[in-house]
Specification:
The chain is of the alpha/beta class and 291 residues long. 35% of the residues lie in helices and 21% in strands. The chain contains 10 helices and 10 strands. It has a 10-stranded mixed β-sheet with strand order 1-2-10-9-8-7-5-6-4-3, with helices on both faces.
Amino acid sequence: MFYTGCGIQLLILIIFSMQTVGLSAADAAYILTSDISYGDRTAPARESQTLDLYWIDNAEKRAIIIYVHGGGWVFGDKKDVHRKPEFFIGHNIAFLSMNYRLRWDYTILDQALDVVSVVKWVRTYANQYGLDPNRIILMGYAAGAHLVSLVATDDRYLRVGGLSLRSLAGIVSINTSNYDIPRHIEETASYTEQKHLTLIFGEDAKVWRAASPATYVKKGKNIPAFALLYVTSEEASSIQANAFAKLLTSAEVETILVPGSDHTSESIDKLLGTPGDRTTLALITFIQAKI
């Protein structure tokens, strides 16, 4: 069931009664090309700036998902993809998982620019791997969700790579509480989360706002469509996802909310692409509409 409200482009997905047909993608053979360098190969961080590409052939140009892992901006690895590659390959969509430079040695700016570098890499090597540079979906989980949302709203990052917000077909943000970092720190973060966030972003509220995707949402910017997945039992994630969705729709950005009512913060990402997962059904419907 879909709700549309007051003429705004907000689609709140109520998936409790959805049938799970179509979730089991047919088995599809694919090629895994691992540890491709997308950064400066002479730089100290070259091992962090690598990607794994799951692709089929170059007989046709396929849409591609760029996946950015979670890990609190400090941990995580591109291998943490679970069932996603097989699922999306089964729907004729290529899948890419990237590593990026992690804190503490690097900054949020570096991490966001790494996402842009991978978008640029896809556009450069599209013909070689059968990718469509005009059908790029950014997908991120937790800290990765914050990064893809930031890149998709603050267009200065893409401009560094000679790109624009029109370079992205859509955004999938999976369970982050950091669309509005000041609000999260001041209202909903636990003591431990507050400490972690101030270690990552510092203690200056101006810096928090500058790192918040919510700061940059405005009409007329060509912000791509967003799918916001969140765990309904987590207060902070729920508050942030709903508030960010309202902000996006007020800026006339197509937005869907996908509530993971039967998920935890781990399972909403880990089970994505598995048969019977209702969140996956809602998500693939969104992605196919964008590509």
